[in-house]
Amino acid sequence: MSSNNGLQVQYEPNEMGSIRINQQLKQFYKNICTKETLKKKFPISKWLPKYSLSDLQCDVISGLTVGLTVIPQGLAYAKIAGLPPQYGLYSSFMGCFVYCFLGTSKDITLGPTAIMSLMTGTFAISPIPNDATYAIILTLMCGVVQLVMGLLNLGILVNFISYPVINAFTSAAAITIAFGQVKHIFGLKNIPRDFLPMVYDTFANLGQTKVWDMVLGFASLVALYLIKKLRSIKWQDEDEPKSTSQKVARKFLWLFGTGANAVVVISAAGIAASLISMNIKDKITITGHLKQGLPPLQVPAFSIHTRNITQSTGEIFSKIGAGFFIVPLLGLVETIAIGKAFARQNSYKIDPTQELIAIGVANIISCFISSYPVTGSFSRTAVNSQSGVRSPASGIVTGALILLALQVLTPLFYYVPQAALGAVIISAVLQMIDWKILKILWNVDKIDLVPLIITFISSLVIGIEYGIMVGIGLSLLMLLYPLARPKLKYINQGNILVVQPNQGMNFPSAEFISETIVQKATEGGSNRSVIFDCCHIYNIDYSAILGLKELVIDLEKNKLQVALCHVQPTVLEVIERAEIQNLSTYTTLDIALQELPVYNVQGSRQCEEDESKPLLRKF
Amino acid sequence: MSSNNGLQVQYEPNEMGSIRINQQLKQFYKNICTKETLKKKFPISKWLPKYSLSDLQCDVISGLTVGLTVIPQGLAYAKIAGLPPQYGLYSSFMGCFVYCFLGTSKDITLGPTAIMSLMTGTFAISPIPNDATYAIILTLMCGVVQLVMGLLNLGILVNFISYPVINAFTSAAAITIAFGQVKHIFGLKNIPRDFLPMVYDTFANLGQTKVWDMVLGFASLVALYLIKKLRSIKWQDEDEPKSTSQKVARKFLWLFGTGANAVVVISAAGIAASLISMNIKDKITITGHLKQGLPPLQVPAFSIHTRNITQSTGEIFSKIGAGFFIVPLLGLVETIAIGKAFARQNSYKIDPTQELIAIGVANIISCFISSYPVTGSFSRTAVNSQSGVRSPASGIVTGALILLALQVLTPLFYYVPQAALGAVIISAVLQMIDWKILKILWNVDKIDLVPLIITFISSLVIGIEYGIMVGIGLSLLMLLYPLARPKLKYINQGNILVVQPNQGMNFPSAEFISETIVQKATEGGSNRSVIFDCCHIYNIDYSAILGLKELVIDLEKNKLQVALCHVQPTVLEVIERAEIQNLSTYTTLDIALQELPVYNVQGSRQCEEDESKPLLRKF
C-alpha cells in the first residue's frame, strides 16, 4: 500500500528528520508532472489504446450479466440501508462509470454491497423515514476520506485491521443482515434494527406471520438455492469435445444460474401480480410505487428542514460521527481484498493506492446522484470475472443497463414481493459466514481466536459498528502490549546492576522501564548503581528522555548512579541534546564497569551471553 | 500499571497460550482471598491503626484549606460542565469520602476539575437546559469503566497516551476553558461553546460589554494574581530563627494566598450585594438562586421524559458515545499523573491499579448524589500537600465543610458575580498551558512535535473531544508504522535470494513481507528461489501464516521454491500445525543453501554480516 510517488514520512534510526523528508518532497513534486504519473492516475490510458473488438464482445456480455445481478441486489440492499428501493439502483451505476477510468483491476465492479448497506443503515439513519440526506452526506465524506487517504498513501491503515477481525465482523454482519430479512419472509412489521431486540421481537411476533409472504419467501429461497447450483454443475465429460448446441446449452444453464436473482425476483413479481389481480392484495407485502426515472443531479443537502424536524450540518455530522472513519475504511478493505484475490487468480497486479483514489472519486461523484456509499462487490466481481470480462469497460454496459432499468422498468418493480427481495439478500449473505476459520485457528494459532470471538460477539451484542471498533482496538492492543512491557535482562556485577531492555524505549514503555529498574536496583536492601545497556535501543522519544531523567533522580535519592553504554549514535544525539544531569555514557559495557566508582567489579560479560531472567514487578 | 494479583495475558515467545494463563488464573483466585489482598484493596486498614492525634491536627488544617479552595472552584467549574453551580458542590464531597477508604496517596484529593468539567460539557450536554441527566449517566459509566479497568489491570492503557499528546490536549483545553470565561468577564450573552465560533462571537459582541461585570472581572483577576503571589513569597531571613508572632504572621499570609479564590469570591459577592442594594441591579450578572441543601440521594434517571422532549436510554448512550471511553481514561491519566508526581516528591509509592479502583468506586457512588465525573485535582492536591496533610482522612474534613456549605451558605452564593467566578477559572487554568515544551522538543526530539502540534490544533479547530482522539491515534500510528513496514535484508546467493526481516511477522506486516519478497525474487527477469531467514522472528500470527502461504503459491507460479531457516521453536510449531504445502524448513542458512536444488550456490554468510539494502517497492 505504500508507494514510490507519495509523501511518505519514515522514522528511521539512521536518517531521522528533515533531510529525507525534503528529498521525498522533491521526488513527490517531480513525479506529479510526468506522463508516467498521469498514466498511473488514469489507468484507462494504458488499456484503451490496445482495446479490440473481441474485448468489446466479452465486456458487453459480462457487463450485461453483472447488470442482471445488480438490479435485484440493489433493490434489496437499499432496504438494509433504510432507504427506498430506487436508491439501490441510484447507487449502482456511477461507480461503474468512474471505475472504468480510474480502476486498475479488470474484474472489480463497484456498487452497493450488503456490508456497506448495513453500515449506512447503522450510521446514517435520517430522523425522517425514507430520507437519504444522511446517507448522501456519508457518501460524500466517505469519498473525501478515501481520496485523501489515497493521495497521502494512507492505504497502509488497512494493514492494521487483522484477518480474524475482518472475518468475525463479516460473519456477524451477515448474520445481522440475514436475520433482519426474516421479518420480510414472514411478513412481520415493526421489528427493531438492533440484533438482540430484532431476534426477540421476530420470534415474539411469529404469530402474525402472513402466509402468502411466507410461502413466496421460502419458495424464493429454495428456487435461489437450486438455480444457483446450475452455475457450479460439474459435467462428467468436461474434457471431451462438445457440439455447438451442447456448448450453447451449457452456457445458457450457467447464465441462468448466474441470473438467479433476476429470475426469482421476476417470477415472484409475476406471481404477486396475479395474486393481486385475484383480489388477495392485503395478504402479500409488495414493494409498491417507486420513483420512476433517473435520480436528480443535485448538490447534497447538508441540513434538514421540515415542519417538525430541523437539523444543522453540525448535528448531522456529529450523529454520523465515527461512521466517517469506519465506513471509508471498510469500503477500502472490501475493495482491496477483492481486488487482490482476483488479481492473484487472474495473474495481474492492482495498485492499492490507485484503487483507493478510484473508490474515493466514485463516492464523491456518486453523492451528486443521491447514492449511498459504494465499494467493490465480491459476488458481482466474481460474476464479472467468470463471465470473461476483459477490461473495466464492462462497467459502462452494466451502468447503461441500470439507467435503462430506472427509466423503463420501475413500474414493474411495483409488484416485486418484499419476501423475494429478502430471499435474495439471505441467499447472498449466508455464504459470507465462515465457520471453518474457528477450527483452523484452533489448530494453528489459538491466540487469534481471542480477537475473532470478541469481535463476533460484540458485533452481535452491542452493535456491528462497535464490534468492529472493539475488534480493531483489541488486536492493536495485542500488538502493542509487548512494546509497552519490554523484557529486561539483568546481570549482577557486584555492586553494579547491568540492565538491557530487548527493544526501543518509547512512550508506552519509558515509565515502566525506569520504574522497574529503580525497584530492582533498590530491592532487598542491596542498593546497586545501574548500567543501562542500550544495545537494542534504536530509537527514543521525549517520554523516554523523561523516563531516563526520573531514573537518574530516583537513584540519586539512594545515592546511586546511572550510566549508559552501547548507545547508538542517533540515540546518543537525542540524549546529549536533552542534557540530563549526572548521566554518564560509555562506549562499551567494559569501560562503563571500569569507570563507575564502585567496589567489587569483576570483569564483564558479553551482551549475548547474559543470563535471562523473567520479569517480576510489584505493580 | 500491571500488577501481581490480576489476570494478565502475556504473549511470550517461550510460553504461549494456555499453561501460563491457567497458572495466572489460579494465582489470581488464590490472591483474592488473602488478608494481604484485603489490605491492598482497603488501604485505610494500613494507616488507620497507626493514626495519631498530631496526624489528626494536620489533616484537619489541610482538609479545611482544601475545602476553602474547592467551594469557589466547584461553583465555577459547574458552569464549564453546563450545569447549575450547586452541581459543582454536589461533585466535591463524595470523592473525598470514598478516597479516604480506598486511596493509596495521602495527597490526592478527588473532585471536579477543569478538564473533567469541560469533557462533561462536551460529551454530556442535555437537550434540557440545566438538566444533569446526561452528566450523571456519564459519571456512573465513567466509574464502571474505571472500576472494570482496575479489576482487569487495564491501567496499562494510560501508557498509550504519550506525553506530547497529553500536554497539547491540556494546553488546548485550558485555552478553550479560559477563553470560554471571557464572556463572563465582559458580561456577554449567547456565546457558543465551540472554540472558533466562540472566539468570533466574543469579539463580535464586545460592544455589548457590561461595564460593571468587566470592572469586577478584571479586579478579580488582578486580586487573584496578587493574593496568590503571597503564597510563594521568599523571605530573605528564611534560615534565621523567628519569633512565634513572625511565624504566625507568615503562616497567615500563606493561608491567605492559598484561600485566594475564597477571598476574591466573597469580596466580589460583597461588592455585588452593595451595588444591588444601591439599585444598579441590571448592570451586574450574579449567580442568582441556588437550590439549597444537600443533593437528593437517588438512583440516576436513564431516560428523559418531558412534555416536549423524550429520549430513551439508548439515545442518551449513543449521544455520549466515545465519551464513555475518553472521559474515564482522561480521569485516570489525571489521577495517576498527579499521584505519581506527589508520591515522588514526598517519597512514597502509589498503586495505580488501586487508584483506578478508588476513582471508579468514587464515581459510581457519586452518581447517586447527582455528581458529574470526578478525578484527582492538581491544584487542590498541591494545596493539600503544602498544607501538611498526613493521610487521606483530610478528605473527610473537606467533604464535611462542603456539606456544611451546601446546607448553610447557599443563600450567600446568590450574590456571587459571574465575572468573579470567571476570573477564578481563568486564573486556575492559565497555569495549565505549557509553551516551554515547544522549545524543549525542538531542541531534543523534533519528531515529537508532530503529535503535539496536531493534537493542539485539532483540539481547538475540530473540538477538544476529537483532538485527543486524533492525537492518540496519530501517536499510536507513529509507533505502529515500523511494525507494519519492517526492514528486509537481502543477500544474493547465486540463484537464491536470502531474505531476513528485522522483526516479527504479524498482521500489519505479513502481506507487505510476502509481496515484497515475491517482487524482489522475480524482478528484472531473474527468477530466484527464496530462503526466508527467520532469525529475528519471535512470534507469528494467522495473518503471517496466510502471508507465507501466498508467498509459496506466488513463487510456485514462477516455478520457484521457498525455504525457511533459523526458525524459533515456538514459531516452527505454529508453522507446522498450519501444514503449508511445499514449504521446507531447515535449521541453518548453510543447510538450506545446500539442500535447495539450484545452481551456483557458493557457500553462505553469517546473519550479522549481511549487506543491508534500503527497501524499494513499486506499491
From TrEMBL, chains A, B:
Keywords of this entry: Membrane, Transmembrane, Transmembrane helix
Q: Which GO terms describe its molecular function?
A: secondary active sulfate transmembrane transporter activity
Q: Which Gene3D superfamilies match?
A: STAS domain (3.30.750.24)
Residue ranges spanning the membrane: these are 134-158, 165-186, 206-227, 252-276, 320-343, 355-375, 387-406, 413-433, 453-481
Q: Which InterPro entries does the record match to this protein?
A: S04_transporter_CS, SLC26A/SulP_dom, SLC26A/SulP_fam, STAS_dom, STAS_dom_sf
Keyword check for Nucleus: no
The record's CDD domains line, in alphabetical order, gives: STAS_SulP_like_sulfate_transporter
Localization (cell)? Membrane
- The source's domain of life comes to Eukaryota
How does this chain sit within the bilayer? Multi-pass membrane protein
Keyword Ligase assigned: no
Q: Which GO terms describe its cellular component?
A: membrane
Q: Which residues form the signal peptide?
A: none
- Using the record's annotation, list all stretches that form the STAS domain: 495-596
Q: What is this protein called?
A: STAS domain-containing protein
